[in-house]
Design goal:
Elements lengths: L4 H10 L9 E2 L5 E4 L2 E5 L12 H14 L14 H14 L3 E5 L2 H12 L4 E6 L4 H10 L2 E5 L4 H10 L4 E7 L11 H5 L2 H4 L2 E5 L25 E6 L9 E5 L1 H10 L1 H4 L6 H15 L3 H19 L11 E7 L1 H13 L2 E2 L2 E2 L9 E6 L6 H17 L1
Parallel strand pairs: 3-12, 5-6, 5-7, 7-8, 8-9
Antiparallel strand pairs: 1-2, 2-3, 4-10, 9-10, 11-14, 13-14
Helix pairs in contact: 2-11, 3-11, 4-5, 12-14, 13-14
């Protein structure tokens, strides 16, 4: 094969870094079928168990019957349909923002927002452990990028103080997706007025999870700073598909005009918009579903820590279990699947060399028995590897 593709695949395979797809049968839920047998699913981002919720599915079906299977065009042509407008208004209120705008994925939302807001006159200050979509967006923006150590506000302060850029944009995950740790947003927000900076918060793993009512990482901070922009996804806790940017009316109007990933793509299908809106309804009906998620999270983390395993300081339903070596990580993942527990191993380049891990994620739909089975299987897999 040309250009050394086969050689590179062989090299990655020898290092335990070659990736492959795992076929999952049936809908997302606590249990799925893999390779023809039922397993406990502990690596989905369906935090609230809404992907297979009957009311969410019913909303998607009814929307398809009423508005059809697809939008047929981009939002700026003829693809801006009633379900899009309804969901954007729903998100605006849910997030406490002036306006919201839908995107087709979290990746495209970060790419679309950052590449539009930043240019050669901008200096971007990006947390070193930010999601790959943020890293790529920073590169494509052509702005000058300063990376600061993970969650290190003092380092961020020093970089901002030294900056002479015309425009300053801070970008951070609220929940770091491979570690399960939380960004110090209160301290970061305190720097915005001081340095006349904007802040984009990637709330992908916080929407529906953090906050007193599941509204995300900013809910309990009660900040009215209009320099804050939120990105969130519809395909994790909300159980659907797509993403959004929420912020001031001026920011949203600017993105409608300038964001290429928004402008040059077909709009989301009406069904996924209706499903996401119904998921927000369910979250707002009461805190019980989020409380179950956090009870399960505490139970899994305690069980793993009591077994002497390193959960890497996680403070969220993302609970990594550190292994270190990439090959051993994938071996442990394979052993777990044999024991009926599906947890993917995470390797470089997603995480640094020597920091490979099993990445367990908890759902509100898991039972105590599910959690205890996961603890037992993970402990046994570590003993065997």
């Amino acid at each position: 094969m040309k250009n050394g593709i086969l050689e590179e695949l062989d090299r990655l395979s020898a290092l335990g870094l070659k990736r492959a797809l795992t076929k999952v049968e049936g809908p997302q839920g606590p249990r799925v079928r893999v390779d023809g047998r039922e397993v406990l699913l502990m690596c989905s981002n369906d935090y609230l168990g809404l992907a297979d919720h009957p009311l969410v599915k019913e909303a998607a079906i009814k929307a398809t019957e009423r508005w059809g299977a697809g939008a047929g065009a981009s939002r700026l042509v003829s693809g801006s349909m009633e379900p899009h407008m309804m969901l954007e208004e729903r998100i605006r209120r849910f997030k406490g923002a002036q306006a919201a705008l839908l995107f087709n994925s979290g990746y495209s939302a970060n790419l679309g927002a950052i590449s539009a807001l930043a240019d050669r006159t901008t200096e971007i200050f990006s947390d070193r452990l930010n999601h790959a979509s943020i890293v790529d967006a920073c590169v494509l923006s052509r702005a000058r990028v300063r990376r600061y150590p993970n969650r290190d506000v003092d380092s961020l302060d020093r970089l901002l103080k030294a900056s002479r850029a015309k425009k300053k944009l801070i970008v951070t995950d609220s929940v770091f997706s491979m570690d399960g740790t939380i960004a110090p947003l209160k301290e970061i927000i305190s720097l915005l007025d001081k340095y006349n900076a904007m802040l984009l918060v990637d709330d992908a793993h916080a929407t529906g999870v953090l906050g007193s009512n599941g509204r995300g990482s900013l809910e309990d901070l009660q900040s009215s700073n209009q320099s804050i922009i939120q990105m969130g996804t519809l395909g994790k806790a909300l159980g659907s598909f797509g993403a959004f940017i929420a912020g001031s009316k001026d920011i949203i109007e600017f993105l409608i005009t300038k964001s290429r990933p928004f402008i040059y793509t077909t709009a989301l299908p009406p069904s996924v918009c209706a499903a996401a809106a119904k998921a927000i309804d369910i979250i707002e009906e009461g805190p019980e579903i989020i409380e179950r998620l956090w009870r399960n999270t505490r139970r899994l983390k305690k069980g793993l820590n009591d077994a002497g395993l390193d959960t890497m300081g996680s403070a969220t339903p993302i609970i990594p279990v550190k292994v270190g070596d990439a090959k051993k990580t994938m071996e442990a993942s394979g052993r777990l699947l044999e024991k009926g527990v599906f947890i993917q191993g995470i390797r470089p380049p997603t995480v640094p060399e020597g920091a490979s891990r099993l990445r367990a994620t908890v759902s509100a739909a898991h039972t105590d028995r599910d959690i205890d089975l996961a603890v037992s299987a993970i402990t046994e897999a570590f003993d065997e590897c």
